[in-house]
Specification:
- By secondary structure, this protein is α/β, with parallel strands linked by helices.
- It has ten helices and seven strands.
- Helix 3 links the parallel strand 2 and strand 3.
- Helix 7 crosses helix 9.
- It is elongated, with a radius of gyration of 20 Å.
- 29% of the residues are buried.
Length: 207
């Protein structure tokens, strides 16, 4: 994929118009760099015509909710989705955790639209997983045959009573709740404290 930082803010857009007579997205499109292999990073400031260029080129957009909040931008993921653009989540400039990004995205999108039912927990989860794989044109983000086994293993009992699993995952899960992380099927992290606590509980139950 061709990763491009573009249409991040109004200042960039103003400079592009003054210098080239067109928006940053239009300029990228004119030079043939807007294709189905292009991922636009943190393209927060696009208008309808920019988004149509992105859609018809089948390009993708990856947004960081934490970056949008930090830089006081609107978080336009719902606007992009309504225009049939694959919009995924990334950690951006200030985020370090996709757990935090999903939570921030679920909140920021509601504030941007003013509608509580817009971009719910399941939408944030999809944007961080399936949409991310589609953005990279790679077998990632799904538990399917032929896809990389990238997983976080969590013990639900550590999260308390659960009514809606995905909502609970997005709004309450913290890094310390993760027992194990796998990348391409290989264990890259284990939470020793969680494992010790589980062993203690099992031992106590056996007694």
């Amino acid at each position: 994929p061709l990763m491009l930082n573009a249409a991040h803010n109004a200042l960039e857009k103003q400079w592009s118009w003054q210098t080239h007579g067109k928006s940053p997205i239009a300029l990228i499109h004119e030079h043939g760099a807007l294709t189905e292999n292009t991922v636009l990073i943190n393209a927060f400031d696009t208008d309808f015509y920019d988004r149509e260029r992105i859609r018809t080129a089948r390009a993708k957009v990856s947004l960081s909710a934490l970056t949008a909040i930090h830089d006081a931008h609107e978080f336009p993921i719902v606007t992009l989705l309504k225009q049939d653009i694959n919009a995924s989540l990334g950690t951006g400039c200030y985020g370090v955790s996709m757990l935090e990004e999903m939570r921030a995205a679920a909140y920021a999108a509601k504030l941007q639209t003013g509608l509580a039912h817009q971009f719910q927990a399941a939408d944030a989860f999809y944007a961080a997983t399936v949409a991310g794989g589609k953005a990279l044109n790679a077998p990632l983000g799904q538990l399917e045959k032929g896809f990389a086994a990238d997983m976080l293993i969590v013990d639900p009992s550590t999260l308390g009573p659960i009514s809606y699993p995905v909502a609970h995952l997005i709004y309450t899960l913290q890094p310390q709740h993760v027992e194990m992380a796998l990348a391409a099927g290989k264990v890259i992290y284990t939470n020793d404290q969680q494992q010790k606590e589980r062993s203690r509980k099992l031992a106590a139950t056996a007694q």
